[in-house]
Design goal:
Layout (H helix, E strand, L loop, with lengths): L12 E5 L5 E5 L4 E5 L6 E2 L10 E5 L4 E5 L6 E3 L2 E3 L1 E4 L4 E4 L2 E6 L2 H9 L7 H5 L5 H17 L12 H27 L10 H4 L7 H5 L2 H5 L10 H22 L3 H14 L4 H30 L3 H14 L5 H17 L1
Parallel strand pairs: 3-4
Antiparallel strand pairs: 1-2, 1-11, 3-5, 5-6, 6-9, 7-8, 7-10, 10-11
Helix pairs in contact: 8-9, 9-10, 10-11, 11-12
Length: 343
């Protein structure tokens, strides 16, 4: 339950830019916000190229994640297509051809703008160097004045702040170059095998292709082990993606039960797949609603002696419901009774 004490200024906003140039501001309420063309979404976008259930925003205390729900025309973050990506305030989100911008709460923006800059200490203001002409003539005048009064020479004037910035900048550039060289040495594999053929280093092993393939020189040309995915994990991911694409094709043709089975297979392989979880949850609701509607239409049609219509509605219900549903047997019996009435 959302805290009722929160005002609109305390919530993040998704600004949707419509094709006619107008902007619609949506307050982002909750930890999971679905976005799509269907009115049941938390944020509904009435655009024909936006999918019914296009994407989902998942918000926690430490991060904001945007997940594409298998949309036909893709989801983009700052112009790049994504399936799942971390986003931040100020990023441009695009659903098909509709551009949006995720903004921080207004209260947070006002607090950032109203934060005063720290005051400059009085010691720094007093010790600021005089203008350049005075500094240029100071060495010729001040020693004489000090000698005439019998006092010690004044402290030497500090160098120009610009010179100090240049020295600091040079030091930072030097450190950056040193780090770049160090990273290159650590990340780029060394050895003659990178630039020289394997046959130059091991001439005796070039006689058979199998020996050359298994040579240590070719092994050094492969990426570091941390960047290689295990074969089993890669196969599991591709299989899950195949089931997900198959589920979407079933949805396009109206085969809802087959689509549900495919989404369940995705979750068997990848239980943390956020896209499959969301689409399966929405699909279960859609199947239940359609089954209720067709069962009620069949009863009403049978009551008003429209037997052919009742048979059709019950048959659709049987394609949506599970045999464990208590209404499944009633629908089968109703079809038989309606057919008997038509004889």
């Amino acid at each position: 339950m959302v805290d009722k004490t929160l005002s609109a200024a305390d919530l993040p906003r998704l600004v949707v830019q419509l094709p006619d140039g107008k902007e619609v501001h949506h307050s982002v309420v909750g930890s999971e916000i679905t976005i799509g063309r269907d009115p049941s979404n938390r944020i509904s976008i009435a655009d024909q190229f936006v999918s019914k259930f296009h994407a989902k925003l998942m918000i926690s205390l430490s991060s904001i994640t945007l997940v594409d729900l298998g949309s036909a025309n893709k989801t983009y973050v700052n112009g790049a297509p994504i399936r799942e990506a971390a986003v931040k305030y100020g990023d441009e989100l695009q659903f098909a051809g509709v551009r949006c911008r995720l903004l921080a709460p207004e209260a947070k923006q006002r607090a950032a703008r109203s934060t005063p800059l720290p005051p400059v200490p009085s010691a720094q203001r007093l010790s600021a160097p005089p203008p350049a002409p005075s500094v240029a003539h100071a060495p010729a005048i001040k020693p004489k004045a000090a000698a005439s009064h019998g006092r010690s020479a004044p402290p030497k004037i500090e160098a120009d702040p610009m010179q100090r910035l240049l020295r600091i900048g040079g030091l930072l550039i030097g450190v950056s170059l040193a780090l770049g060289v160090l990273l290159r040495v650590l990340l780029v594999p060394s050895g003659p095998s990178e630039n020289a053929p394997v046959t130059d280093a091991t001439p005796s092993k070039t006689t058979t292709p199998a020996t050359t393939t298994a040579s240590p020189e070719t092994a050094t040309a492969t990426p570091p082990p941390a960047q290689i995915r295990p074969p089993a994990a890669a196969g599991a991911t591709s299989t899950a993606e195949e089931h997900f694409e198959q589920a979407l094709s079933f949805l396009d043709t109206g085969r809802l039960k087959e689509a549900r089975t495919s989404f369940q297979k995705v979750l068997e392989i990848d239980p943390d797949n956020a896209r499959a979880k969301t689409r399966l949850s929405l699909l279960e609701e859609e199947i239940a609603q359609k089954a209720d509607r067709h069962f009620g239409n069949a009863r009403q049609a049978f009551q008003y002696l429209r037997y052919e219509e009742a048979i059709g509605e019950w048959e659709i219900f049987l394609t949506l419901a599970d045999p464990s549903d208590v209404r499944y047997t009633e629908a089968e019996q109703g079809i038989q009774q309606a057919k008997a009435k038509l004889r």
